[in-house]
Design brief:
Blueprint: H1 9-26, H2 38-44, E1 51-54, E2 67-71, H3 74-82, E3 86-89, E4 102-108, H4 117-127, E5 128-139, H5 147-151, H6 160-169, E6 172-179, H7 188-199, H8 201-218, E7 226-227, E8 237-244
Parallel strand pairs: 1-2, 1-4, 2-3, 4-5
Antiparallel strand pairs: 5-8, 6-7, 6-8
Helix pairs in contact: 7-8
Length: 246
């Protein structure tokens, strides 16, 4: 089984900036309505006028209109701004907004990328109003670590029980969850794709934009939300619908 590469905060940021900087400089914006999260999101925004999404890249899940977006990538921010979104440059560990500013906060595929996830969660909770909904997604099971995790700049995978305790410690109640994620399962095809990303990035991105991403969107399964935590055995990634305690 591969083991996580040992990286400090600066090393993690360098890996993430290099990978996602190159990705967002060539990728196309995918509208939120195309993801399987949209039925959930469209129901939540009816009662959430103040909305924030952190580190969406070019894959936002909240609507571009009337949502504030924060991302580190200038490439992603440029495209989002050009599509009419309100954007600000920043990191999840230092969100540039005041306390209790948002009724809905979304941070999908983010906290596993940073060295200090406690600080990241604390920031997400800080900018959430009492009773606000927080959408998170994280990869599970450290023993399921693959070379893909290293490539895309993951710092960790989460043990389900420890994750629940961590959410509780930050004043979050888990209301619902679902099996989630578009990460390909380990295979020779994935290994080949990773090789091209490392050695033939321009060609790899052509295939990703025109073939890989459209196919992934087409074959998405509907979210099956359940109360509390899903049965996590064999689950690679989970979507969490949390609420900040009043």
């Amino acid at each position: 089984m591969p083991v996580p590469a040992v990286r400090d905060e600066a090393g993690l940021r360098q890996v993430n900036e290099r990978f996602y900087g190159a990705l967002w400089s060539t990728a196309r914006l995918v509208q939120p309505q195309r993801f399987n999260t949209w039925p959930l999101v469209s129901a939540l925004i009816e009662s959430a006028r103040r909305r924030l999404e952190v580190a969406p890249g070019l894959r936002p899940r909240l609507p571009l209109e009337e949502t504030q977006f924060v991302d580190l990538s200038p490439e992603a921010l440029r495209v989002l701004r050009g599509s009419g979104a309100s954007v600000a440059q920043g990191l999840i560990g230092a969100i540039p907004f005041p306390d209790k500013a948002f009724d809905l906060v979304c941070a999908l595929d983010v906290v596993e990328h940073v060295e200090d996830d406690e600080r990241a969660l604390a920031e997400l909770v800080r900018v959430a109003a009492p009773g606000a909904v927080l959408l998170l997604s994280v990869p599970l099971h450290p023993e399921a670590w693959t070379a893909f995790d290293d490539l895309v700049g993951h710092r960790r995978r989460y043990e389900p029980a420890a994750l629940l305790a961590q959410l509780e410690a930050h004043g979050l109640t888990l209301e619902r969850s679902a099996v989630y994620g578009m990460q390909p399962r380990p295979s020779r095809m994935l290994d080949l794709g990773m090789w091209f990303l490392v050695n033939r990035r321009e060609r790899a991105m052509w295939w990703y934009n025109r073939v890989g991403m459209p196919l992934a969107l087409y074959f998405q399964k509907p979210l099956e939300l359940v109360p509390g935590m899903v049965v996590t055995e064999g689950v690679d990634e989970v979507l969490l619908v949390c609420r900040k305690k009043a």
